[in-house]
Amino acid sequence: MQKQTKVLLAIIAAVAILGVAVFYSGGGLQGKIKLSSKGKLQVMVDVETPSEDIVVAGTVDKLVSVFKATASGDEGFEIKKLTVINRYDNVKGDTDNNIKTVRLTYTNSSNATVSKEGVLLNGSVSFSGLNVIVPKNENAKINISADFNTIPGVATSGEMVALSIDGFTARGLQSGAVFPGHVVNGLKYVNWMHVYGSKPTLVLNANSPSGSHSASPNDKVFVFDVVADANGGLVVERVLIKMMSDGSFNTNASIKAILQDETGNIVPITNPAKVKVLDDSNAGVELIIQFELSKGETRTLSLVLDTAALMNNQAVVDDLFLATINYGTSSKGLVTPGGFDWEDSTDTDAKWVGAQKKTNLQGNILKY
Questions:
Q1: pLDDT digit string (tens) for 147-177?
Q2: Residue of 61, 86, 52 whose CA lies nearest to 186
Q3: Which pTM value belongs to this model?
Q4: How far apart are the C-alpha atoms of 117 and 147, rounded to whole Å?
Q5: Strands 28-34 and 53-56, how do they pair?
Q6: Pairing of the two strands 366-367 and 211-212
């Protein structure tokens, strides 16, 4: 018995040294846990996990993370118990106030969808009495969603949460033996959610001009809508619009930019907005503004320029022009600012607009 134990420990040590106990999948390094001599159970962040995003306080049943359990070898498993943890900065549980309820959803042995709810305490919540069946050489999905607290109220604008499976207990379907397991680096690669009191959505307005266009001193070149989330209002503070052409910009041009609202009024700008022409193909303008939206409200902004001065050679047919606003991105909580800054009702600043299918909002191509 003592000899067998030494052999087993030697095998475990060799596995750890050789790196066999971990693998890459879905962009994350996750755990591969050998639970019995007949089979192995892997638990990893699934590709169906949402992209890192902004979640609006008060949102109900927001999908945060998806995990996939895979059984390989000659034995399947039943996950009986697992623990969900929330990321924390300095103290365990210091962002738990943002989450009202954690919800675990899976398909049981009767092929029925089961949901269980729990409340985070000091950064974790355990779920027992589970019936997550992982047949041999197959997999099972475990969804983790949450109901978020409101602002004003319990939630704190600007904080981040990330829900991950930390530990679990599984039973071999053939052997009947019960084994503990844990996910290696699961929290490191799980999805992060940024909590704010609102969230903007940018949409190209149907009246944004396109195609053949005549240059003029007051040319409306780009029209877009800003939509505030139904749960909260927001204030737009900065818009950076990049402009591109096919080499048609006048590099000596000195042009002011104007933003108009849906009524044609000029949006208050704290600093003079002057177009910066970088070269004959690239230009941009930064507009520092105060543009307020109530919750659920849609407002329209239009960029007006002196394209008669900007476009270098109007005698040439089809000089191209394109305006763009970058959305910004975030990876593991580190935001790369875009061209749209805003704040929610708590005056918490945000320099990106959350996960999007595209990286920017583009106007239509104009031909001068």
A1: 999 988 899 999 999 998 888 899 999 888 8
A2: 86
A3: 0.83
A4: 10
A5: unpaired
A6: parallel
